[in-house]
Amino acid sequence: MKNWKIKLSLFINYFTFAMLLNSVGTVILQVQNNYGVTESSASILEAFKDLSIAITSFFIASYIVRIGYKRAMLIALGLLTIACLAMTQVPAFWMTKILFAATGIGFALTKVSVFATIGLVTDDEKEHVSFMNFIESFFMVGILSGYFIFSAFVDNDNPQSTSWLAVYYLLAGLSAFAFILLWMTKLDESKVQHDDTKNAADDFADMLKLIAKPLVLIFIISAFLYVLIEQGIMSWLPTFNSKILHLSNSLAIQMSSILAGSFAVGRFIGGFTLKRFDWFKVLAICLVAAAVLVLLTMPLAQNLGEETITSLAGAPLAAFIFPMIGILLAPVYPAINSVILSSLPVKQHAPMSGLIVVFSALGGTTGSIITGYMFEHLDGKTAFTMSVIPIGVILVVLWIFKRETAKHVAVH
Q1: FRET label pair with 362: which of 59, 231, 244, 394, CA 20 to 30 Å apart?
Q2: CATH H superfamily, domain 4-189+199-411
């Protein structure tokens, strides 16, 4: 396979960050037990993660060509290794905030670099959208693995125990391995060598000019809404399983892995489906089906009793069915990312990737904080049921995005 070494490296990098970034739902549950914080206070962890991603992407994306994609990813992996080791030594809520901030900074460098690199290692639009789905599916495999790894370190008999922090030794080792693998892998970046006649301010201005394009603006709204939905569900599913479905903490985390698994399967299937069918038709069917699934599943979470469930056999039906929403939502994000990147020249992929990361991060923070607020002041069932509203809005926005894409193709 052409460029297989760098493609493998991209998969490993994404896998590593996936486990840490999306452990936020598990950590939200754990810090409530360990440090006595409320649901709304715990939800701030999503902001430390996503705002650091957004801020870093906003200021670095236009400059990353100067740094180099490979060098930026190496910096990210080095920072991640240090942060994980520090987490094991300082068991405190403020250290958890620093960990997610460092992880966010590293992921911003990695995601912009990965998205931009895809344009260098693929030959056409179909290969681009297919590889985008596959790499996003591998991201979900990382999330899936993270649920099982974290749950293995949780002490059900002593919810206040901080023994689960030992998982960060393992994650530090994995990020160090990813660093070495990338260091030994060659990446040809000659196609995107920086124009020396431009300074950093010019590069930043060029990125901001992209937002003025109607196609890009509509895409940004689509990405923001999608990640709002995804992160709102993903970050709070462990808490939903624990407090609404009454699963034990370790089982609540393990059952949340079904969502990550369904996302991985959905994106893997999307990698093949989107090669054959119109992307908008596929996504429209998926979004309508997702809304229906929410409305049919939430009533199953009522009247379940108060006894803590410790075995898979005792878990209610809602714990198995609701996470299947991942299969339906999965193809949306990589598909719209690929559509916008494929419509732009390769040299604009890095700044466009920066905008993708910025507004995805803002959407993730917004979704988690809103969901956390509703969990605390209403209830978990209402919080998840309300997700049908942004699902309906994004369907309308994607229809507009489809029209603008057609106009763009006709002009160019």
Answers
A1: 244
A2: MFS general substrate transporter like domains (1.20.1250.20)
Phi/psi of residue 345, each to 5°?
-65, 155
Q: Counting beta carbons within 10 angstroms of the beta carbon of residue 37, is it exposed (0 to 12), middle (13 to 18) or buried (19 or more)? A: middle
What's the average model confidence in pLDDT over 215-238? 86
Asked whether the whole model's pTM tops 0.85, one would answer: no
Among 233, 166, 211, which Cα is nearest to 380's?
233
Q: Which two tokens stand for residue 411?
A: 């002009």
Q: Which amino acid is at 394?
A: I
Retrieve residue 126's tokens. 């179909």
Nearest to 354 by CA among 112, 143, 147, 154: 112
> What is the length of the chain?
412
Task: Bin 234: left if φ > 0, else alpha if -120 < ψ < 50, else beta.
Answer: alpha
- Within 10 angstroms of residue 148's Cβ, the number of other Cβ atoms is 12
Whole-angstrom Cα distance, residue 119 to residue 121? 6
The CA–CA distances, whole Å, from 381 to 11, 43, 240, 244, 323 equal 35, 17, 8, 8, 14
Q: pLDDT digits over 27-62, tens only?
A: 887 888 777 777 777 778 877 887 888 788 777 766
